[in-house]
Amino acid sequence: MRDYIELRAIEVGKYIIDSKATVRKTATKFGVSKSTVHKDLTERLPQIDHHLADEVRDILDINKSERHIRGGMATRQKYLLLHRVN
Predict the structure, then answer these.
(1) What pTM was computed for the model?
(2) Measured distance CA(79)–CA(83) in Å, rounded
(3) Highest taxon of the source (predicted)?
């Protein structure tokens, strides 16, 4: 079981680096929760592959810094669509 978790953490890390995906998108892709993805990336991966974990951390930091912008854009789109329907 432990090998599976370590392999998943590595695969999740590689996926984040290759696709620049968010934690939510990654969780959906791998069929696990956001909490599991976050734990894999922040706790397990640094113990397995420190270099990979550093690269993932950079992407997570970028995503975190942009999330308020993405949220605002999503809200704007929601209300634009609601306004067009009515």
Answers:
(1) 0.79
(2) 6
(3) Bacteria
Measured in degrees and rounded to the nearest 5, phi and psi for residue 20 equal 55, 30
Residues of the chain by 3-state class (helix, strand, coil), percent to 5? 90, 0, 10
Would you list the domain boundaries of the chain? 2-85
Q: Map residue 69 onto helix, strand or coil.
A: helix
Ranges of H-type helices in 20-49: 23-30, 34-39, 45-48
In a 13 Å sphere around the CA of 18, the CA atoms on its Cβ side amount to 7
